[in-house]
Amino acid sequence: DAGVIQSPRHEVTEMGQEVTLRCKPISGHDYLFWYRQTMMRGLELLIYFNNNVPIDDSGMPEDRFSAKMPNASFSTLKIQPSEPRDSAVYFCASSLTEDYNEQFFGPGTRLTVL
Amino acid sequence: AQSVTQPDIHITVSEGASLELRCNYSYGATPYLFWYVQSPGQGLQLLLKYFSGDTLVQGIKGFEAEFKRSQSSFNLRKPSVHWSDAAEYFCAVEYGNKLVFGAGTILRVKS
């Protein structure tokens, strides 16, 4: 298996633009997680899905952020409009349904908002 | 609330020396505990995990960790550090299908 795939790896955009980050989880994994990593706040969980359904979005910073999972093999995290403070590395992770819940992380998308 | 504390932001050790990274957690029930490693520009990779049973857990790359319930700790150890171990290490506790991460410890290895 190729592991968790994220695209793009790097994104540079201007303030006010829409940004879409993409994730393909490991096949067969029923849980998908979106994290944000910054120097100031460390690694934060934004939202996670189970069987394509959002379960907990309490970590989503504000309404400018939205996430979808239209099918078991694809998820998007959208920021509209983007702001400089959204600059961070965004990680996607997936895991099986079993109780031990080991998460496998993608390589991340480094977002820079100018 | 569940939390994970990694008291050391940076640690520097000499190559070949032993290593211990500290982790303390706050969680009411029996925890599921993890250590992840992140190399520069990379995602996180699982080193080891504890769910139950033997409190000394062996992981990849020669790492081990010991769960001590009385101290609410899950410290990571390696007997002899290699230059390739330089990275950032994160301790995490599972809470309701979610991982709560510590702030991380950056390990520097000097030759």
Question: Helices and strands of chain B, in N-to-C order?
Answer: EEEEEEEEEEEE
Uncertain spans of chain B, ≥5 residues at pLDDT below 50? none
Beta content of chain B comes to over 45%
Number of separate helices of chain A: 0
Question: Could you tell me which chain pair has the largest interface and how many residues each side has?
Answer: A-B, 21 and 20 residues
Shape of chain B: globular
Q: How many E strands of chain A?
A: 11
Structural class given helices, strands, pairing of chain B?
A: mainly beta
Question: What value does the average pLDDT of chain A take?
Answer: 92
Using DSSP, what is the number of strands of chain B?
A: 12
- Work out the helicity level of chain A: under 10%
Main β-sheet description of chain A? 7 strands, mixed
Shape of chain A: globular
Q: Kindly report how far apart the N and C termini of chain A lie.
A: 36 Å
- Please tally the helical runs of chain B, counting DSSP H or I stretches of 4 or more residues: 0
User: What is the gyration radius of chain B calculated from CA atoms?
Assistant: 13 Å
* CA distance, first residue to last residue of chain B: 41 Å
Largest sheet data of chain B: 6 strands, mixed
Strand content of chain A: over 45%
Structure in words:
- Chain A is mainly beta and 114 residues long.
- Chain A is built from no helices and 11 strands.
- Chain A has strands spanning 5-7, 10-13, 19-24, 31-38, 42-50, 53-56, 65-71, 74-79, 88-95, 104-105, 109-113.
- In chain A, strand 4 and strand 5 (42-50) form a beta hairpin.
- The radius of gyration of chain A is 13 Å and the shape is globular.
- The termini of chain A are far apart.
- The mean pLDDT of chain A is 92.
- Chain B has 111 residues and is mainly β.
- Chain B has strands at 3-5, 10-14, 19-21, 24-26, 32-38, 44-50, 56-58, 64-68, 73-78, 87-95, 98-101, 105-110.
- In chain B, the strands form 3 sheets. In chain B, strands 2, 5, 6, 10, 11 and 12 form a 6-stranded mixed β-sheet that branches. A 4-stranded antiparallel β-sheet of chain B has the order 3-9-8-7, with no helix packed on it. Chain B has a two-stranded antiparallel sheet with strand order 1-4.
- In chain B, a hairpin with a 2-residue loop joins strand 10 (87-95) and strand 11.
- The model of chain B has no long low-confidence stretch (mean pLDDT 92).
- Classes of the chains: A mainly beta (114), B mainly beta (111).
